Amino acid sequence: MHDFLYRQGEMHCENVAIERIAKEVGTPCYIYSHHTLVQHYRAFDGAFHSVPHIVAFAMKANSNLAILRLMAREGSGADIVSGGELYRALKAGISPAKTVFAGVGKTREEIRYALQTDILMFNVESSAELRAIDEVAAEMGRRARVALRINPDIDPKTHPYISTGLKKSKFGFSADRALEEFKLASSLPHIEVVGVHKHIGSQLTEVAPFVEALKKILLLVEVLKSHGTDIRYINIGGGLGITYSDERPPRPQDLAEAISPLVHDLKCVLIMEPGRVIVGNAGILVTRVLYTKQSETKRFVIVDAAMNDLIRPSLYGAYHEIRPVREVPGAKTITADVVGPVCESGDFLAKDREMPEARPGDLLAVMSAGAYGFTMASNYNSRPRVAEILIKDGQIHVIRAREEYADLVRGEVIPEFLST
Ligand SMILES: *Cc1c(COP(=O)(O)O)cnc(C)c1O
Asked: How far is residue 221 from each of residues 54, 215, 263, 332, measured CA to CA in Å?
Protein backbone atom coordinates (compact mmCIF):
# COMPACT_ATOMS: atom_id res chain seq x y z
CA MET A 1 0.00 0.00 0.00
CA HIS A 2 1.16 3.54 -0.64
CA ASP A 3 -0.13 7.05 -1.27
CA PHE A 4 1.43 7.90 -4.65
CA LEU A 5 -1.58 7.66 -6.92
CA TYR A 6 -2.85 9.30 -10.09
CA ARG A 7 -5.75 11.72 -10.11
CA GLN A 8 -6.89 12.79 -13.55
CA GLY A 9 -3.59 11.57 -14.93
CA GLU A 10 -1.46 13.52 -12.43
CA MET A 11 0.56 11.71 -9.79
CA HIS A 12 -0.09 12.93 -6.27
CA CYS A 13 1.47 12.24 -2.91
CA GLU A 14 -1.58 11.95 -0.65
CA ASN A 15 -3.55 14.91 -2.04
CA VAL A 16 -0.66 17.08 -3.18
CA ALA A 17 0.32 17.13 -6.86
CA ILE A 18 3.93 16.02 -7.38
CA GLU A 19 4.24 18.71 -10.03
CA ARG A 20 3.45 21.37 -7.44
CA ILE A 21 6.08 19.99 -5.06
CA ALA A 22 8.67 19.91 -7.84
CA LYS A 23 7.85 23.54 -8.68
CA GLU A 24 8.25 24.63 -5.07
CA VAL A 25 11.39 22.73 -4.10
CA GLY A 26 13.01 21.85 -7.42
CA THR A 27 14.32 18.52 -8.65
CA PRO A 28 15.63 15.99 -7.93
CA CYS A 29 13.92 15.47 -4.58
CA TYR A 30 12.82 12.63 -2.37
CA ILE A 31 9.15 12.79 -1.38
CA TYR A 32 7.77 10.75 1.52
CA SER A 33 4.15 10.22 2.54
CA HIS A 34 3.45 10.61 6.25
CA HIS A 35 0.28 8.57 5.91
CA THR A 36 2.08 5.65 4.23
CA LEU A 37 4.85 5.68 6.83
CA VAL A 38 2.43 5.58 9.74
CA GLN A 39 0.27 2.90 8.12
CA HIS A 40 3.30 0.72 7.43
CA TYR A 41 4.62 1.08 10.95
CA ARG A 42 1.24 0.31 12.50
CA ALA A 43 0.62 -2.67 10.23
CA PHE A 44 3.95 -4.16 11.27
CA ASP A 45 3.72 -3.37 14.97
CA GLY A 46 0.07 -4.40 15.14
CA ALA A 47 0.68 -7.74 13.46
CA PHE A 48 2.75 -8.86 16.45
CA HIS A 49 0.28 -7.71 19.10
CA SER A 50 -0.02 -11.19 20.61
CA VAL A 51 3.62 -11.37 21.76
CA PRO A 52 5.65 -8.91 23.84
CA HIS A 53 7.85 -7.18 21.29
CA ILE A 54 10.00 -4.21 20.36
CA VAL A 55 10.10 -2.83 16.84
CA ALA A 56 13.60 -1.43 16.33
CA PHE A 57 13.44 0.43 13.03
CA ALA A 58 16.57 -0.30 10.99
CA MET A 59 17.58 3.29 10.47
CA LYS A 60 20.18 2.59 7.83
CA ALA A 61 17.17 2.34 5.49
CA ASN A 62 16.20 5.96 6.17
CA SER A 63 17.70 8.08 8.90
CA ASN A 64 16.19 11.51 8.30
CA LEU A 65 15.49 13.09 11.71
CA ALA A 66 11.87 13.87 10.90
CA ILE A 67 11.19 10.30 9.88
CA LEU A 68 12.93 8.98 12.98
CA ARG A 69 10.87 11.34 15.13
CA LEU A 70 7.72 10.06 13.49
CA MET A 71 8.84 6.50 14.25
CA ALA A 72 9.64 7.44 17.86
CA ARG A 73 6.13 8.91 18.24
CA GLU A 74 4.71 5.62 17.00
CA GLY A 75 6.71 3.84 19.69
CA SER A 76 9.56 2.54 17.57
CA GLY A 77 13.05 1.85 18.78
CA ALA A 78 16.13 1.79 16.56
CA ASP A 79 18.49 -0.76 15.09
CA ILE A 80 21.75 1.17 14.73
CA VAL A 81 25.05 0.27 13.08
CA SER A 82 27.25 3.23 14.01
CA GLY A 83 27.84 6.01 16.52
CA GLY A 84 26.46 8.44 13.96
CA GLU A 85 23.19 6.54 13.83
CA LEU A 86 23.03 6.54 17.63
CA TYR A 87 23.51 10.32 17.57
CA ARG A 88 20.66 10.69 15.09
CA ALA A 89 18.38 8.32 17.00
CA LEU A 90 18.90 10.23 20.26
CA LYS A 91 18.41 13.59 18.53
CA ALA A 92 15.13 12.31 17.10
CA GLY A 93 13.94 11.18 20.52
CA ILE A 94 14.16 7.43 20.07
CA SER A 95 14.46 5.71 23.42
CA PRO A 96 17.88 4.15 24.17
CA ALA A 97 15.91 1.48 26.03
CA LYS A 98 14.63 0.34 22.61
CA THR A 99 17.92 0.73 20.76
CA VAL A 100 20.09 -2.19 19.63
CA PHE A 101 23.53 -1.89 18.07
CA ALA A 102 24.69 -4.27 15.31
CA GLY A 103 27.73 -4.32 13.01
CA VAL A 104 31.01 -6.22 12.77
CA GLY A 105 33.28 -3.20 13.33
CA LYS A 106 32.16 -1.25 16.37
CA THR A 107 34.98 0.99 17.58
CA ARG A 108 35.79 1.51 21.25
CA GLU A 109 34.55 5.10 20.98
CA GLU A 110 31.24 3.84 19.63
CA ILE A 111 31.00 1.21 22.36
CA ARG A 112 31.68 3.85 25.02
CA TYR A 113 29.08 6.21 23.55
CA ALA A 114 26.48 3.44 23.48
CA LEU A 115 27.21 2.46 27.09
CA GLN A 116 27.01 6.10 28.19
CA THR A 117 23.55 6.38 26.68
CA ASP A 118 22.56 3.00 28.13
CA ILE A 119 21.19 1.39 24.97
CA LEU A 120 19.24 -1.83 25.37
CA MET A 121 21.98 -4.09 23.99
CA PHE A 122 24.82 -4.75 21.59
CA ASN A 123 24.31 -7.38 18.94
CA VAL A 124 27.78 -8.89 19.05
CA GLU A 125 29.39 -10.35 15.94
CA SER A 126 32.75 -11.80 17.15
CA SER A 127 34.62 -12.89 20.27
CA ALA A 128 37.14 -10.10 19.77
CA GLU A 129 34.26 -7.65 19.91
CA LEU A 130 32.92 -9.33 23.07
CA ARG A 131 36.27 -8.77 24.75
CA ALA A 132 36.41 -5.16 23.59
CA ILE A 133 32.94 -4.45 24.99
CA ASP A 134 33.91 -6.14 28.25
CA GLU A 135 37.02 -3.96 28.53
CA VAL A 136 35.25 -0.70 27.76
CA ALA A 137 32.44 -1.56 30.18
CA ALA A 138 35.05 -2.35 32.85
CA GLU A 139 36.71 1.05 32.37
CA MET A 140 33.33 2.66 32.84
CA GLY A 141 32.34 0.49 35.80
CA ARG A 142 29.37 -0.86 33.85
CA ARG A 143 27.94 -4.13 32.63
CA ALA A 144 27.04 -4.28 28.98
CA ARG A 145 23.92 -6.13 27.87
CA VAL A 146 24.59 -8.19 24.77
CA ALA A 147 22.94 -10.58 22.37
CA LEU A 148 25.08 -12.84 20.24
CA ARG A 149 24.36 -12.67 16.55
CA ILE A 150 23.99 -16.18 15.20
CA ASN A 151 24.54 -16.95 11.58
CA PRO A 152 22.00 -19.72 10.95
CA ASP A 153 23.38 -20.59 7.50
CA ILE A 154 20.03 -20.16 5.80
CA ASP A 155 19.75 -19.00 2.21
CA PRO A 156 17.37 -16.03 2.16
CA LYS A 157 17.09 -16.32 -1.64
CA THR A 158 17.86 -12.68 -2.26
CA HIS A 159 20.68 -10.67 -3.88
CA PRO A 160 24.15 -11.81 -2.65
CA TYR A 161 25.05 -8.27 -1.54
CA ILE A 162 22.06 -8.14 0.81
CA SER A 163 22.29 -11.75 1.95
CA THR A 164 23.89 -11.90 5.40
CA GLY A 165 23.08 -15.25 7.02
CA LEU A 166 25.18 -17.71 5.05
CA LYS A 167 28.29 -19.45 6.40
CA LYS A 168 30.57 -17.44 4.14
CA SER A 169 29.15 -14.12 5.35
CA LYS A 170 31.12 -11.78 7.61
CA PHE A 171 28.23 -11.48 10.07
CA GLY A 172 27.67 -13.21 13.37
CA PHE A 173 28.78 -16.53 14.90
CA SER A 174 28.23 -19.87 13.23
CA ALA A 175 25.53 -21.89 14.96
CA ASP A 176 28.02 -24.70 15.75
CA ARG A 177 30.34 -22.36 17.63
CA ALA A 178 27.58 -20.47 19.37
CA LEU A 179 27.57 -22.47 22.59
CA GLU A 180 31.26 -21.89 23.19
CA GLU A 181 30.86 -18.20 22.48
CA PHE A 182 28.02 -17.98 24.96
CA LYS A 183 30.28 -19.63 27.52
CA LEU A 184 32.96 -17.04 26.84
CA ALA A 185 30.42 -14.23 27.05
CA SER A 186 29.05 -15.50 30.37
CA SER A 187 32.57 -15.68 31.81
CA LEU A 188 33.30 -12.02 31.11
CA PRO A 189 32.57 -9.98 34.23
CA HIS A 190 31.31 -6.86 32.50
CA ILE A 191 29.06 -8.63 30.02
CA GLU A 192 25.49 -9.64 30.65
CA VAL A 193 24.13 -12.03 28.03
CA VAL A 194 20.45 -11.28 27.53
CA GLY A 195 19.59 -12.41 24.03
CA VAL A 196 20.21 -14.00 20.68
CA HIS A 197 20.10 -12.15 17.39
CA LYS A 198 19.90 -13.12 13.74
CA HIS A 199 19.39 -11.23 10.50
CA ILE A 200 19.69 -13.32 7.37
CA GLY A 201 19.28 -10.77 4.63
CA SER A 202 17.15 -8.14 3.03
CA GLN A 203 14.28 -8.04 0.54
CA LEU A 204 13.06 -11.53 1.48
CA THR A 205 9.94 -12.49 -0.42
CA GLU A 206 9.06 -15.71 1.41
CA VAL A 207 8.24 -16.54 5.00
CA ALA A 208 10.03 -19.90 4.99
CA PRO A 209 13.63 -18.65 5.48
CA PHE A 210 12.50 -16.56 8.47
CA VAL A 211 10.86 -19.61 10.05
CA GLU A 212 13.75 -21.96 9.29
CA ALA A 213 16.29 -19.53 10.74
CA LEU A 214 14.18 -18.88 13.82
CA LYS A 215 13.79 -22.61 14.45
CA LYS A 216 17.57 -23.01 14.41
CA ILE A 217 17.90 -20.14 16.86
CA LEU A 218 15.25 -21.57 19.14
CA LEU A 219 17.08 -24.90 19.39
CA LEU A 220 20.05 -22.94 20.63
CA VAL A 221 17.93 -20.94 23.07
CA GLU A 222 16.68 -24.20 24.58
CA VAL A 223 20.21 -25.47 25.09
CA LEU A 224 21.31 -22.14 26.55
CA LYS A 225 18.42 -22.12 28.97
CA SER A 226 19.31 -25.64 30.09
CA HIS A 227 22.84 -24.33 30.79
CA GLY A 228 21.37 -21.59 32.94
CA THR A 229 21.77 -18.66 30.54
CA ASP A 230 18.67 -16.56 30.88
CA ILE A 231 17.74 -15.55 27.37
CA ARG A 232 15.20 -12.74 27.63
CA TYR A 233 15.28 -11.37 24.11
CA ILE A 234 15.01 -13.06 20.75
CA ASN A 235 15.87 -10.74 17.88
CA ILE A 236 14.79 -11.96 14.45
CA GLY A 237 16.32 -9.04 12.54
CA GLY A 238 14.70 -7.37 9.56
CA GLY A 239 14.55 -8.25 5.91
CA LEU A 240 10.89 -8.44 4.96
CA GLY A 241 10.68 -7.55 1.27
CA ILE A 242 8.51 -5.11 -0.62
CA THR A 243 7.02 -4.89 -4.11
CA TYR A 244 9.40 -3.16 -6.51
CA SER A 245 7.88 -4.68 -9.64
CA ASP A 246 5.91 -7.91 -9.42
CA GLU A 247 7.20 -9.48 -6.20
CA ARG A 248 4.51 -10.77 -3.86
CA PRO A 249 6.22 -10.56 -0.48
CA PRO A 250 4.43 -11.81 2.63
CA ARG A 251 2.54 -9.17 4.56
CA PRO A 252 3.70 -8.39 8.12
CA GLN A 253 0.55 -10.24 9.17
CA ASP A 254 1.75 -13.40 7.37
CA LEU A 255 5.15 -13.16 9.03
CA ALA A 256 3.56 -12.65 12.44
CA GLU A 257 1.26 -15.64 11.98
CA ALA A 258 4.26 -17.85 11.21
CA ILE A 259 6.55 -16.46 13.92
CA SER A 260 4.36 -15.64 16.90
CA PRO A 261 3.29 -19.21 17.77
CA LEU A 262 6.96 -20.29 17.84
CA VAL A 263 7.91 -17.76 20.49
CA HIS A 264 4.61 -17.40 22.30
CA ASP A 265 5.43 -19.53 25.34
CA LEU A 266 9.07 -18.60 25.75
CA LYS A 267 8.59 -15.64 28.09
CA CYS A 268 10.95 -13.68 25.87
CA VAL A 269 10.62 -10.27 24.29
CA LEU A 270 10.69 -10.52 20.51
CA ILE A 271 12.79 -7.83 18.81
CA MET A 272 12.35 -7.04 15.13
CA GLU A 273 14.41 -4.75 12.94
CA PRO A 274 12.31 -3.86 9.90
CA GLY A 275 13.71 -1.19 7.59
CA ARG A 276 12.70 -1.47 3.96
CA VAL A 277 9.18 -2.73 4.64
CA ILE A 278 8.37 0.43 6.62
CA VAL A 279 9.90 3.11 4.40
CA GLY A 280 10.58 1.57 0.97
CA ASN A 281 7.24 2.23 -0.67
CA ALA A 282 6.62 5.36 1.39
CA GLY A 283 9.04 7.41 -0.71
CA ILE A 284 9.78 8.31 -4.32
CA LEU A 285 12.58 10.13 -6.06
CA VAL A 286 11.33 12.79 -8.45
CA THR A 287 13.55 13.74 -11.33
CA ARG A 288 13.25 15.91 -14.43
CA VAL A 289 14.16 14.85 -17.94
CA LEU A 290 17.02 17.01 -19.25
CA TYR A 291 17.62 15.54 -22.68
CA THR A 292 16.87 12.54 -24.80
CA LYS A 293 19.43 10.97 -27.03
CA GLN A 294 19.42 8.26 -29.64
CA SER A 295 22.67 6.40 -30.31
CA GLU A 296 23.04 3.83 -33.05
CA THR A 297 21.83 1.06 -30.80
CA LYS A 298 20.17 2.68 -27.85
CA ARG A 299 17.85 5.35 -26.72
CA PHE A 300 18.71 7.34 -23.59
CA VAL A 301 16.53 9.42 -21.33
CA ILE A 302 18.92 11.73 -19.47
CA VAL A 303 17.54 12.96 -16.15
CA ASP A 304 18.78 15.27 -13.40
CA ALA A 305 18.99 12.49 -10.75
CA ALA A 306 21.96 10.13 -10.80
CA MET A 307 23.66 7.20 -9.11
CA ASN A 308 24.92 9.48 -6.35
CA ASP A 309 21.27 10.21 -5.44
CA LEU A 310 20.00 6.62 -5.76
CA ILE A 311 22.70 4.00 -6.07
CA ARG A 312 20.61 0.82 -5.82
CA PRO A 313 20.32 0.23 -9.60
CA SER A 314 24.09 0.68 -10.06
CA LEU A 315 25.06 -1.23 -6.92
CA TYR A 316 22.68 -4.19 -7.00
CA GLY A 317 21.13 -3.98 -10.44
CA ALA A 318 17.99 -3.15 -8.46
CA TYR A 319 14.74 -2.53 -10.29
CA HIS A 320 12.76 0.63 -9.57
CA GLU A 321 9.60 1.37 -11.47
CA ILE A 322 9.79 4.68 -13.30
CA ARG A 323 6.49 6.43 -13.94
CA PRO A 324 5.57 9.66 -15.62
CA VAL A 325 4.33 12.25 -13.13
CA ARG A 326 1.80 13.29 -15.77
CA GLU A 327 0.25 10.54 -17.85
CA VAL A 328 -0.08 11.41 -21.51
CA PRO A 329 -2.98 9.53 -23.09
CA GLY A 330 -1.87 7.58 -26.12
CA ALA A 331 1.84 8.22 -25.46
CA LYS A 332 4.15 6.08 -27.55
CA THR A 333 6.02 3.30 -25.70
CA ILE A 334 9.79 3.42 -26.00
CA THR A 335 12.64 1.22 -24.73
CA ALA A 336 15.35 3.31 -23.13
CA ASP A 337 18.06 3.56 -20.52
CA VAL A 338 17.25 6.19 -17.93
CA VAL A 339 20.61 7.70 -17.02
CA GLY A 340 21.97 10.54 -14.91
CA PRO A 341 24.66 13.16 -15.47
CA VAL A 342 27.41 11.34 -13.50
CA CYS A 343 30.52 10.41 -15.48
CA GLU A 344 30.28 6.64 -15.06
CA SER A 345 28.80 4.04 -17.38
CA GLY A 346 27.31 2.50 -14.24
CA ASP A 347 25.21 5.60 -13.72
CA PHE A 348 21.71 4.51 -14.57
CA LEU A 349 18.32 4.35 -12.89
CA ALA A 350 16.87 1.88 -15.40
CA LYS A 351 18.18 -0.22 -18.28
CA ASP A 352 16.34 -1.22 -21.44
CA ARG A 353 13.15 -0.06 -19.85
CA GLU A 354 9.84 0.00 -21.67
CA MET A 355 8.25 3.29 -20.75
CA PRO A 356 6.03 6.00 -22.16
CA GLU A 357 8.02 8.38 -24.32
CA ALA A 358 9.58 11.07 -22.11
CA ARG A 359 10.42 14.55 -23.33
CA PRO A 360 12.81 17.17 -21.95
CA GLY A 361 11.10 18.97 -19.08
CA ASP A 362 8.92 16.00 -18.13
CA LEU A 363 8.92 14.84 -14.53
CA LEU A 364 9.51 11.18 -13.73
CA ALA A 365 8.86 9.39 -10.44
CA VAL A 366 11.31 6.69 -9.41
CA MET A 367 9.09 4.53 -7.24
CA SER A 368 9.86 2.63 -4.02
CA ALA A 369 12.84 4.84 -3.23
CA GLY A 370 12.16 5.49 0.46
CA ALA A 371 14.58 2.83 1.72
CA TYR A 372 18.34 2.83 0.99
CA GLY A 373 17.78 5.87 -1.20
CA PHE A 374 18.87 9.09 0.44
CA THR A 375 20.86 7.23 3.13
CA MET A 376 23.17 5.86 0.43
CA ALA A 377 23.48 9.19 -1.39
CA SER A 378 26.89 10.76 -1.87
CA ASN A 379 28.42 13.92 -3.24
CA TYR A 380 30.19 12.12 -6.08
CA ASN A 381 30.93 14.45 -9.02
CA SER A 382 30.46 17.28 -6.49
CA ARG A 383 26.71 17.01 -6.75
CA PRO A 384 24.90 18.58 -3.79
CA ARG A 385 22.63 16.05 -2.11
CA VAL A 386 18.98 16.54 -2.95
CA ALA A 387 16.10 17.83 -0.81
CA GLU A 388 13.85 15.53 1.20
CA ILE A 389 10.18 16.36 1.53
CA LEU A 390 7.51 14.99 3.85
CA ILE A 391 3.86 15.36 2.88
CA LYS A 392 1.27 15.42 5.63
CA ASP A 393 -2.34 16.61 5.50
CA GLY A 394 -1.81 18.51 2.27
CA GLN A 395 1.25 20.33 3.59
CA ILE A 396 4.71 20.26 2.05
CA HIS A 397 7.44 20.00 4.71
CA VAL A 398 11.07 20.27 3.67
CA ILE A 399 12.74 17.83 6.08
CA ARG A 400 16.18 18.21 4.54
CA ALA A 401 17.19 21.25 2.54
CA ARG A 402 18.91 20.77 -0.77
CA GLU A 403 22.65 21.11 -0.23
CA GLU A 404 24.41 24.17 -1.60
CA TYR A 405 27.81 24.40 -3.22
CA ALA A 406 29.26 25.73 0.05
CA ASP A 407 28.18 22.48 1.75
CA LEU A 408 30.39 20.57 -0.67
CA VAL A 409 33.61 22.06 0.66
CA ARG A 410 32.68 22.31 4.36
CA GLY A 411 35.60 21.08 6.44
CA GLU A 412 38.09 21.16 3.60
CA VAL A 413 41.23 23.17 4.26
CA ILE A 414 43.89 24.55 1.94
CA PRO A 415 47.07 24.37 4.08
CA GLU A 416 49.19 27.44 4.62
CA PHE A 417 51.90 26.31 2.23
CA LEU A 418 49.42 26.31 -0.64
CA SER A 419 47.62 29.47 0.35
CA THR A 420 49.68 31.93 -1.63
C1 LIG B 1 19.96 -4.00 7.21
C2 LIG B 1 19.57 -4.63 8.47
C3 LIG B 1 18.23 -4.65 8.87
C4 LIG B 1 17.11 -4.12 8.02
O5 LIG B 1 16.90 -4.80 6.85
P6 LIG B 1 15.63 -4.50 5.94
O7 LIG B 1 15.75 -5.43 4.82
O8 LIG B 1 15.70 -3.08 5.52
O9 LIG B 1 14.42 -4.78 6.78
C10 LIG B 1 17.94 -5.21 10.10
N11 LIG B 1 18.91 -5.72 10.90
C12 LIG B 1 20.20 -5.72 10.54
C13 LIG B 1 21.21 -6.29 11.46
C14 LIG B 1 20.58 -5.19 9.32
O15 LIG B 1 21.86 -5.21 8.96
From this structure: 19, 10, 11, 59
Beta carbons of 387 and 25 less than 8 angstroms apart:
yes
pLDDT on residue 259: 96
Q: Where are the domains of the chain?
A: 4-31+280-408, 34-276
The architecture CATH gives domain 34-276: Alpha-Beta Barrel (3.20)
**Longest CA–CA separation in the chain, Å:** 73
- Cβ-based neighbour number of residue 383 at 10 Å: 21
Any atom of ligand 1 within 6 Å of the Cβ of 237? yes
Ligand 1 atom with minimal separation from the 372 CA: 8
Looking at the CA of residue 371, tell me the nearest atom of ligand 1: 8
Q: What's the 203 CA to ligand 1 centre distance in angstroms?
A: 9
pLDDT digits (tens, 9 = 90+) for 132-160: 999 999 999 999 999 999 998 887 777 77
Q: Is 343 among the residues known to form the active site?
A: yes
pTM of the predicted structure, to 2 decimals: 0.96
What class does CATH assign to 4-31+280-408? Answer: mainly beta
Q: What is the pLDDT of residues 165-203, one digit of tens each?
A: 666 777 888 888 888 899 999 999 999 999 999 999 999
CA of 86 to the centre of ligand 1 (A): 16
Interstrand relation of 10-13 and 4-7 (parallel, antiparallel or unpaired): antiparallel
